Amino acid sequence: MSAGGFEQKYSEFETIARRKYDRNMGVFLVSKEVLKFIYLLNRDLDSDRSLIPNVGMGELALCAENVDAYSISADTREIIEDFYADGLNFVQADFLNIDIVGKYSSIILFPPMGVRTEQGRSEVAYIEKSLKLLAENGSAIILVPQNILTAPAFREMREKIIKEYSLEAVFTLNRISRGTGVQCSIMIVQNKAQNERIFMSLAEENLENLYDGYKNGQCGFYVTAEEVYDRFDANYYDPAYKEVRELVQRRDTVKLGDIADIINGCMIPSEERKDHGEYIIIKPQNISKGKLHFDGGRNAYCNASFISANRRGERCILKNGDVLISTTGRTDWAFYHGEEDYAIANQHVAIIRGKQEYEEWLRLFFSTRTGIEALETQLRFMDHGSVFNHISTRGLVDMYVPDIKMMKAAERIDNAVDLEAKVASLFKELGWTVDEGYRDNRFAYDLALKEHGELKGIVEVKAYESAQIENNSHLAKQLFAMKQNIGEVSLYLFVDDDIYEYIDGTLEHLPELPRPGKKQTVKKAIKKEKIDRDTISIEKGNIEESSIADRITMELILRGIEDIKESAHRIENKVDDIAEKIELLSKQISGYQSLVNRQLELAVSPEEVERIIHAFSEECAERILTEVDTKKSEKEYNTELNKLINKFGEDAWKKMDESSRTFLISSKVIFKNLTGPGLEDIVDYSGVCLLVTKALEVEISKRFCKNYVDYLKVKYPGRANYNQFPTPLLNKYGKPIKPKEFTLGSVAYVLCYSVDEDLTEEQKNNNKEKLIEYSKEKLLSGKTEEEIMDMLLDYAESIEEVRKDYRNPSAHTNELRRVDAEECFALVVDVQQLLKKMLDSFNE
Predict the structure, then answer these.
(1) Mean pLDDT of all residues belonging to the chain
(2) Number of helical H runs and strand E runs in the chain
(3) Among 37, 360, 406, 811, which one is least packed by beta carbons within 10 Å?
């Protein structure tokens, strides 16, 4: 078929398809320009027969002459049978669940987007099965949404492509259809060893020109396979932004070659390898899971005479504390802790030997979670682009090492094995000099807080409960005596997991944790004529029901945010234009992210990670709305407002909280202002995604926390009935949680999508029964129990996707790009319309 014949065929097919499908059914035709481009690419493959795993509405079959096409749609069968003649074998079946015999030299794939299958995400399931059906040296032309090339959720699949196949080309497209605004790209993947160079092109309006330029070598650019690892999108590798990309990648780091000597092991000929000798030879097989392993009889040795005769031999003799990395085969590493002048590394092992002043930095890099994660990520990157895994000395020299302060903080928390040690470590992070087990006269204290060498506070870490303190004459006398001993120095206690200061016989609640250089503001007790040594009164403030470590960690985040605000304050007042405001705010959010990343390193549980990210999103969402008053840009604001009302419909829009509406409108206005040539992959769109996910969180929290708890309190009144409440709605004290404690991470448990395995079967059943009871009476009237659970589990699954793919990455610097924001909009608002579906289904 000629190019002209293709265009005529497409027009005929479009007429038939439009008659068959309603425009409002949510389906769309891939545009003529994109299909013609795929047709031309496939024609060059000269394949005798092609496979199309998902033929869409039938239009993809235009891209090949002889083809096996799959679809589960009866409507598609009717269109295809009416339109196509010989050469097309249509199979009405689920491609993922049918056995296919044979291999194909050509596959054309446009996987279903955002569909959950038995095999997992539809995009991943279709791509992986299709690639397995490729003949040797066969090619797959794969049309995918841009987030497949960038999102963390698809990282494992991208690693698999470049490890087991050859990524040949990536073409960036503008729009693939008038029916969707989702940006897509085309990948060409071949079933062979990875090619050294990968062709990439930026978005081109005229795809015929792009095809001609690709064939003639007159457009696009090439990147080496070694460069491409974590993401495949062409925008990221645009040569015009290479310097910016490298700057981002190297922030707050040093090169390994700056802090250590990198030494290649010594080539030891077979005739020099002995069963016995003065030096044991370390080879890659000895290195496994961070340790050296020696297996008796299969060890090899060499003699001192060989080493003295070899000009590199002496440098390769191991020293205590050296780090060894296998440079061929399976990549692994280990510390050498053994005798000096005893072992030597062979040519397949690299020695990392810390320079004298950087030995601690090197140790932290290879022993803390932060360091090891950076190390292993880069080792995977280094060996991904070749047939035989190989780590070069040059690669090791250029390897980046994280900031030593961050690794030290992570190590301190990791090594703190009890509450006192953890609290001490975290107080140090707040800026105090901390003495543990401090003694003064006859008294011993848990912690002493010092500033510039001067004692400022004493902390008793033991966590008391109110009931233990009230009417406890022994403790009252003890505190009185301790305070008498330290005089004007503050005395702090933890009660009900909150911090109090002992003042004149009264425990006064502190609104925040004590910090150096900042005087605490407490409600001073009335000065007593005479203090009763036998009693203690407790003045409670607004108590935060969270752990001691949580409170201190949150204080660290908030303290850092205040520093960021203060440093930006001087220029903020001079910025009026909304675009400039957004640019400034993006920089501040990056500061928040760097701070939060450090706190995430200190997190000791998944629950703590969730609380830290929740606190970050709360602060940033509020900050965005405060700093960027989108209402000032009245025309843009009203335009996006009207679009959203039309998108949601009047009923769903009215059900939405006012704050959610503001979040969504602001996200759309800000998104439009974060545009410009070349910015798509440089600007961080975290702020946009935060606002969208915050709107979702507000609506979910309103219905499955506040309203749900209110319902339960009426239905099961009194504290005695708290045991009737679902466990995810109770805090660790057995009391109902407050809305501010509810996060997106809570949703999966409240909706019974995820289950705490520590619960009894009775508790698990009660959680489900109460959810169905509340939903039937208040939220989803008129539906059966089965319908309710199916609906809520679907919602929970989608919300988990939002949380993991968009809310959580927003806390990390440079994680979210324009395409991610588009996908976030598509899932929550525009295409799959998660939020609208939920609001339409709820009674109110």
Answers:
(1) 78
(2) 29, 29
(3) 360
